[in-house]
Amino acid sequence: MKNNLIINVLALAVFLIGTIEYIITGVIEMIAVELGVTTSEAGLLVTVFALAAAIVAPILIALTINVDRKKLLMVTLSVFIASNGLMFISPSYETALWIRIIQGVSGGIVTVVAMAVATRLVEKERRGRAIGIILMGLSSSLVLGVPIGTFFSEMFGWRVLFILIGLLSILPLLTSIKRFRQLKKKKQLPSGCSSPF
């Protein structure tokens, strides 16, 4: 499959986003104790992420329909990375809620745009497979990301997990930027398309 590397890198980014979305369920009691809230209140950190990804992200994607998809992907992935740093230093529960909304919006946009970009980087008959690889990154976050993240959090604390995910997310960001530049120079675009982004 053409451009296999960049599609796998985008799947890694979606895997890390999915891990951040669901990891709260694995460390909810730890977070509740540290932030001084009940377990049900800490559970809202999952809810606001999901609502932001499901409601706000699609609206912003629609409003930015004329924006270069590659640039949108890189900007929102950068916002996601920064939000993990903010979560690491968040002083209160209320602040954490706002940060989780930012994570949900940026993560939701990255996930959707990554699938759109992936389909434009491969031959028509391989588009379903490209989407499958991206979605596999998301589903793998539940199967692998959450258990590993929970184990890691129990050893080093839940805040350290956010900074680690933020640092790991820099890898797909830099790799994507480099690969997109290479594709632009080589003009490796699908036939009939002026730009995949």
Summarize the structure.
This protein has helices at 4-22, 28-35, 39-63, 69-89, 93-120, 127-156, 158-186. With 197 residues, the protein is mainly alpha-helical.
Please describe what this structure looks like.
The chain is an all-alpha fold. It contains 7 helices and no strands. It has helices spanning 4-22, 28-35, 39-63, 69-89, 93-120, 127-156, 158-186. α4 runs antiparallel to α5 and α5 (93-120) packs antiparallel against α6 (127-156). The longest helix is centred in the C-terminal third of the chain and has 30 residues, at 127-156. Residues 189-197 have low confidence and may be disordered.
Task: Set out the fold topology.
Blueprint: H1 4-22, H2 28-35, H3 39-63, H4 69-89, H5 93-120, H6 127-156, H7 158-186
Helix pairs in contact: 1-5, 1-6, 1-7, 2-3, 3-5, 4-5, 4-7, 5-6, 6-7
